[in-house]
Amino acid sequence: MKLLVIEDEGSLLESIIQYFKREKFLCEIASSYDEGIRKIEDFQYDCIILDINLPGGSGLQLLKYLRQNKSGDGVIIISARDSLDDRIAGLNLGADDYLTKPFHLSELNARVKALIRRKYSEGTNILEVGALEVDLLSRTVTAMDQQIALSKIEYDLLVFLMTNKNRVVSRQAIAEHIHDGPSVQIPSSDFVYSHIKNLKRKLKEKGCNEIIQTVYGLGYKLSV
């Protein structure tokens, strides 16, 4: 799962990133309004953690821009401002949740995971496509009642394809989503091929042959 944290308080930003990396999230950061806009224009995220007070502009304005241009990314607002007006404004602009500072990182983690469950698996912890099943909490993958051992990248790749079921996803989009590091360091999308190949092999060994299809010249699609 890919997370973007838009926060200008350095110590809090670092704490959030380190916590969610331990939770096996791919994490990116932005510390200003303009940097946040650039990130959301260029990439897709499973969840965005967004501060209201940012250098260069308001987080609420950034949220409004996001919802007008890319409605799919989940958003949790974090703010030191606990006024009812701010909460209502954020939720009316399309935020999925609102958390007041200071907060425990374990609570933020629970809210992020709840948002992702609502977004991808109708409130449950399970993603299912045919005989393939992924438990988002335990990060386990099973097929035909057999557990499949995947690397972290293979797991993230599979979840990304499952949450885009029946859609063609380009190599570049996959590369951007599963790359663990700053966006500027994303390698050539050719590295996606080897991970797709390994994932296909492991799924085939458990009876899920051809569930991931290559759409030549375009990318890949997961369907049954």
Overview in brief:
Helix content is 42%, strand content 23%. The chain contains eight helices and 13 strands.
Which characteristics define this entry?
alpha/beta, five-stranded parallel beta sheet, 224 residues, Rossmann fold, 2 domains, Arc Repressor Mutant, subunit A
SSE-based structural type = alpha/beta
Q: Uncertain segments of ≥5 residues (pLDDT<50)?
A: none
State the end-to-end distance.
Answer: 23 Å
Total of helices = 8
What's the CATH topology name of the largest domain?
Rossmann fold
What's the overall average pLDDT, rounded?
87
Full CATH superfamily name of the largest domain: Response regulator
**Total domain count:** 2
Q: How many distinct beta strands?
A: 13
Query: Using only CA atoms, what is the Rg?
Result: 18 Å
Please identify the top-level CATH class of the largest domain.
Answer: Alpha Beta
Biggest sheet layout: 5 strands, parallel
Order of helices and strands: EHEHEEEHEHEHEEEEHHHEE
3D shape: elongated
What is the helix content?
Answer: 40-55%
CATH architecture heading of the largest domain = 3-Layer(aba) Sandwich
| Order of the strands making up the biggest sheet | 2-1-3-6-7
Beta content comes to 15-25%
